[in-house]
Design a protein that fits this description.
Radius of gyration: 24 Å
Helix content: 55-70%
Number of helices: 11
Order of helices and strands: HHHHHHHHEHEEHEH
Oligomer: single chain
Structural class: alpha+beta
Strand content: 5-15%
Shape: elongated
Amino acid sequence: MIKIATQLYGESIKRTILDYVLIITGAFILAAGFVFFINPYNIVPGGVYGIGIVVHHLIPAIPVGTFGLALNVPLTILGIRILGARFGLKTVIGMVLTTVFMDSLTYIIGENDPLGLADDLLLSSVFGGIVIGFGLGLIFKAKATSGGSDIVAMIFAKLTKISVGQLLIIVDSIIVLLGLIIFKDWKIPLYSWIVIFITGKVIDITIDGLNYERALVIVSDKHALIKEKILNTLERGGTYLNGEGMYSGNEKRVIFTVVTRREVSALQAMIKNIDPKAFMAVMETSEIIGEGFKSLEEKSA
């Protein structure tokens, strides 16, 4: 019993250390994304820092990061009430570090086109979205946020089945309209939405990883031979489903299996040799959990 408790305590310490490493790294990457690709060009990619960019344009004496921190305080209190105190501690650290990194980098690097991308805002928007999304994804993996609309997105993600990345796109798009009103330039919201879209996608990829799995539904009279190929050649499992032909009324054995994207072509070639008339549906999957893939323990870690 003591040994088990010690192992669990050790795993908890490791998890905690990893979480804070992710938060620190993510906060720095997030801040760098803003300082190098977003802030100098008045792009408004939503969130409190997007609002901060607008305010900084109107009142240059107010740093973007500092203004974002001021807005984050009431939002963080709301997040603590709904998502828990542990969430609040990590978020406080994340948003403070983001502010410190952002204002420090701005002071060191400056605000006048540090990468020389003033004439190529599309490139700045694309890479800004990638860098910011990766930074936010690392912070989210630690079950924290950098504050702002991240908190709003995570609250709604808890209450709905919509992903955090998709919710950020919705919330931040509303804030983009503020940039249109202040800067009175239609290019600003267009570039901003590019950043928001890419950020949301990169966040989901960072949290869940790239999806390489495909779910297959196979209907064939020679299902036994196909089953042997799946089990012995691909070394994958599957499930038999009982079906009935809608036209013929004949009973059917339906194979349901999941393979990697690379294995789809190999399995299709095998089935073509066994039964060229077989029916096969190949479906993309958002996530596969179970034996042979990510376990529930890994998912909840």
